[in-house]
Amino acid sequence: MDYVSTRGSIQPANFRSVVLSGLASDGGLYVPNSLPHFDSEDIANWSWLPFDELALRVISPFVGGEIESAVLKSMLKDCYQRFDHRAVAPLQQIGPNEWVLQLHHGPTQASKDFAAQLQSRLVAHFLTLPDRAIVIGATNGDTGLAAVEAFKDVANVEVVALYPRDGVPADRLAGLKASSSGHVRLIEVDGSFDDCQTLVSRVLRAWPLDDVIPISFNSTNWVGVLAQIVFFFHSALQLGGGIRPVGFSIPGASFAEIYACFIAQKMGLAINQVIVSTNTNDALHRFINQNSYSTREVSHSLSPSMDFSLFSNLERFIWELYDRDGRTVQHLMANFEDSGKLSIGNKQWLQARMLFDSYAVADDQVREELLTIFKEAGTAVDPQTATGALAARLHRRSIASPMVTLAQLAPSKSSQLLAELGVWNGDVAATPTLSVDHVVLSEGDIDGLTHFLQGV
């Protein structure tokens, strides 16, 4: 399979080139030139498959002939060995035809483990020694921890993680700092998560190291989307054999999951509703409902993994809305990078409105939903999952179709809040003492980041 850039200015690339990349050379994101399509009978025949076998069916067409089938099969089986549930991603019922898909059984208890575990194995397969790579990205905790864990034993690869000074939960920040070493470099940015993402994008577009391969651990790398397409096939097969339509509510912790759901639907999966749920940082909600997307100062919420307003994968979706017209996307994104604001054509916006519903959830609503789920379903969920579950309950179009909320974080990561609400009976994580052995950059300091990378 060939891959092209959303900005349309490069020759097609193969899967290996896409894996070993940050951004396309024209600054766009890699996307498959075509999508595989399965009919309902094909999908129904996968109902009995374990998660790794299902992943093989979904992922193989995107790999093409770049990896032998037996090698890819072994790689995918190995990916999920460290997940602590036999189903890998079990479904839990929380109400009448309402479910949560537990994506937090990986080694760092976050859905980011799925992409990170797959990406590290693909990089290890394709990276030819003595080539070196730096796996770089922005994190507000979970994505960085997943990357550090996944790449810790990959030869000739170093991890560089940028994180905002104020906005990373203390337990995640302690985990990152505990991993800091010659193999893992941390950079604190005196700004927001959006500022971290912007710095990473800028340095990837003007990479300063000729002898080192830059690889993004954020979902700007296509693997970050690819690994998550499997979620939706897995859920639909469990609840309706791939034939019965299923709806999904996706907390907007990135646009990668949302775009992956869109791709799964285009591949033939019976999905009859997609709800995008946000917290008070509602950039995606405003885009879907008002055709107004902009970066703005973020506020802190009960779900800090959703506290940002810059969603890189939105570019891939816009490329689809404009019938894969790279020139138009390049113009739109150039204007957005200059102004911080973006609106799309009315035709394209109406199409987006037909594909997605959305809802913004305030913190007081999240607290109430956490209590409701515990009282009515007897289970604790994290605030991010509660955000999605409430949006699903308020905006589902059909009670006859299963509605699945993606549970991207383990409730133990919010044990202090849940204990305060009386919905947590386990151990409560103590607030860790943090050291300060890391590099600090000011907002927008691309020269400082470049200088740091030259010393890695």
Automatic annotation (TrEMBL):
InterPro entries with a match to the protein in the record: Thr_synth_N, Thr_synth_N_sf, Threonine_Synthase, TrpB-like_PALP, TrpB-like_PALP_sf
Domain of life from the UniProt record: Bacteria
Protein's name according to its UniProt entry: Threonine synthase
The species this protein was found in: Pseudomonas kribbensis
Domain Tryptophan synthase beta chain-like PALP per the UniProt entry, residue ranges: 92-327
Keywords (A to Z) from UniProt: Pyridoxal phosphate
Key word Transcription regulation present: no
Domain (Threonine synthase N-terminal) ranges: 3-80
SUPFAM superfamilies tied to this protein: Tryptophan synthase beta subunit-like PLP-dependent enzymes (SSF53686)
Cofactor(s) the protein requires to work: pyridoxal 5'-phosphate
Keyword Ion transport: no
